[in-house]
């Protein structure tokens, strides 16, 4: 779609003017699914038994996960940890869900 907004070229206009071989490949189905989870609440289970509850903001090829506004649960203890990176080698399970309806970690 080619259009101008306030005299500026839009992303679609610019993208269509770039040769196909120079543009980024389309996301795979798995990457698109991961991208849809960005900024949603996530519960991450670590190999040492801790559970982190926060906003999913990033991951990488090594499966490292970054959560923002995070709470850490260890046994019956709960603490606010803020921005946290969980190394991929310590991931056991990641859940993306509507935590408003879950009272397991409150």
UniProtKB/TrEMBL annotation:
Signal peptide stretch: none
Source superkingdom: Eukaryota
Domain Sm residue range list = 32-96
* UniProt xrefs under InterPro entries: LSM_dom_sf (IPR010920), LSMD1_Sm (IPR034110), Sm_dom_euk/arc (IPR001163), snRNP_SmB/NAA38-like (IPR050914)
One GO cellular-component annotation of the UniProt record comes to: NatC complex
Q: What is this protein called?
A: Sm domain-containing protein
Provenance organism: Jimgerdemannia flammicorona
